Amino acid sequence: MHLPNAFDAAELPTTPEAFLPLPNSEGTLLARASSIAALATLGLDTVSYGSENTGALFVNLVIMPGDGYFPEKSRSSMHGHTDAVSFPVRGRFDNEDARIAPSPDFVCLSGLRNPANAETTVMPLSEILPQLTHDQIAELKKPQFIIRAQGTFRDGTESILGEEHQVDGGELLFDVEGKLWVRFSHSSAGADEEEGAAADAVEAFAAACKARADGIAIAPGDILLVNNRIGLHGRTTVEGEAGGESRWLLRTYGLDTASLDPQQRYEDSAHKLFP
Ligand SMILES: [Fe+2]
Predict the structure, then answer these.
(1) Which positions ≥6 away from 60 have C-beta within 8 Å?
(2) Which residues does the record give as Fe cation binding sites (predicted)?
(3) Superfamily of chain region 2-273
């Protein structure tokens, strides 16, 4: 759901160079208030996870200077994925730790700057599934995949849980009330064996994802809400140098929290989920 000109991206400082801190200014306040209002309209609470960026409710998505995992990721294109991929979908529990909260229902991106019109890509599951055979879909529903925590959750889950969160024997597609839900990441989810029906199904899914990607340039003042259950998202390459007036989005998550267990939250926060 693309909401053009949802807020006035006015009065912005120079673009930050890290996920945090998030500068206080009129533009970032309007982006945050509009994001929370948009998610509330969908019946969702705005949430974060203690294991990602210390549980900050909003983070900067910006070009980061230097080399290394996060700076390189901040500029490169990103294949289709769902966010918080190793966490269960809403209504299910992690096999080993019932305290782990569900991944978000929606990813909410708000645009502050996008000088080169870098595109966010979205891939609806409804366009991916027709590219797959019945047998491939059946494979993806089996609890047989290894799912590693998304990059931004690795250090945080390790320090909170004692080891990086990983699912051994998880599904990628779920039957939920007559519909299919997805969790997937090209880089963090895959089959145990490199060959065989499971690996082939993952490869077919990834190829269908690539073929069905739609690009959306999030302009200053726009909000993009991506359904994290029936859609995947990614990004094209981001050009430019860190800081200055370079690309700057804010990101937060929305979740229907009605069925959350108290142990999936932190007592000291209204929005931060475990881990
Ligand atoms: Fe993402």
Answers:
(1) 15, 16, 18, 19, 20, 22, 248, 249, 250
(2) 233
(3) Clavaminate synthase-like (3.60.130.10)
